[in-house]
TrEMBL record, chains A, B:
Domain of life: Bacteria
Entry keyword Aminoacyl-tRNA synthetase: no
Protein name: Winged helix-turn-helix transcriptional regulator
Species in which this protein is naturally found: Paenibacillus lemnae
Coiled coil (residue ranges): none
Pfam families cross-referenced by the UniProt entry: HTH_5
UniProt xrefs under InterPro entries: ArsR-like_HTH (IPR011991), HTH_ArsR_DNA-bd_dom (IPR001845), HTH_MetalResp_TranReg (IPR051081), WH-like_DNA-bd_sf (IPR036388), WH_DNA-bd_sf (IPR036390)
DNA sequence: TTATAATATTCCTTTACAGGAATATTCCTG
DNA sequence: CAGGAATATTCCTGTAAAGGAATATTATAA
């Protein structure tokens, strides 16, 4: 199961915007608020939700706080999606082939 | 922006379970309810949400309804994640290399 | 230490949504 | 057409969560 807190946090439009913004690099609360035309308190609230969902990190920098993305939840989503890839990868034989290649690589590493 | 309705639908634990179950193939309401120990009305409600979010399809089959996954939202999530892959793909030089290969392929196609 | 910028929190109100229970609908079978 | 299975819908209630406004906190600079 994919972490529902993370999905829930990302299902809010403005939080998703924040996350997309942070994909380009760490930002402070004020920068985020200004870029997305949000009020500061709401921005802080959204960031708190993202923080508690494990989606962002904070770093205190003097007077301000720099928020940045944590890789784990996105990586987890990517892995979770594996269970669904065959839905749209029509050429399953190619997928099989790919998986076989992975296996042979593993075997090589065993040696 | 990733479709927030889809994410919202998936952020509910039982709906996520339903989706994971459907990943293995289409199922009817009763089958889903029994497998996940849900009551039938709740199951139908969850399926309705998933339906309106574009995550599942229905097919009327005689007395029952068969629900199945639609590939699009998952594919969309996969594409959306591309903006975040550099967060956990440490070897960015490899990614660069890969992108350069893609570009040269495009150029070949132009000729 | 005081003023000020940057950020966080609280309180309030409104809205959305999940679960339970009961009921309605639809479709097959005899 | 009547009965019954499979599914959908409605009503109700409690709870969580978002936005606005005001306020509290923290840390820097003078």
């Amino acid at each position: 199961m994919m972490d529902t807190a993370a999905l829930s946090a990302l299902s809010e439009p403005k939080r998703q915007q924040i996350v997309e913004l942070l994909a380009e690099g760490p930002l402070t609360v004020g920068e985020i608020a200004e870029t997305l035309c949000l009020r500061q308190p709401q921005t802080s609230k959204h960031l708190r939700v993202l923080l508690e969902a494990g989606i962002v990190n904070v770093r205190a920098e003097a007077n301000r706080r720099s928020y940045s993305l944590r890789p784990e939840p996105f990586q987890a989503m990517d892995h979770w999606l594996n269970a669904f890839r065959n839905l749209w990868m029509e050429r399953l034989d190619n997928l099989d082939h790919y998986l076989q290649q992975l296996q042979s690589k593993d075997k090589k590493q065993d040696r």
